[in-house]
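Sequence in, structure out. Go.
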Amino acid sequence: MDNYILLIFFFYDILLLGNDTMKKERLTVVLNTNIRKRIKIKAAERDISVSEIVEEYLSSMMEKEELEEDIALIKFAEKREKTFVEKESLTHDEVWG
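Output:
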């Protein structure tokens, strides 16, 4: 089997981020051996732990997805704005009673 179990240690550290606190938890991930090696190399190049590099990557990917969703919603709103006809629109009371 070419998979390797990577234990990512997110011990229950409390990080103070402004007024927010963030608890980190342990997570087990099963990865292809090649991916594991690439992660370890990247972590070593940056002199950070494997956990930190994986956490950064996952956070980055989630932020990218959220940004892509925002862009899609903006495009949708712009398209609707171009076809908006005020005379045909409903008032707040007509919609919500």
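Check: Residues 5-15 have pLDDT under 50 and may be disordered. Residues 50-83 form the longest helix (34 residues).
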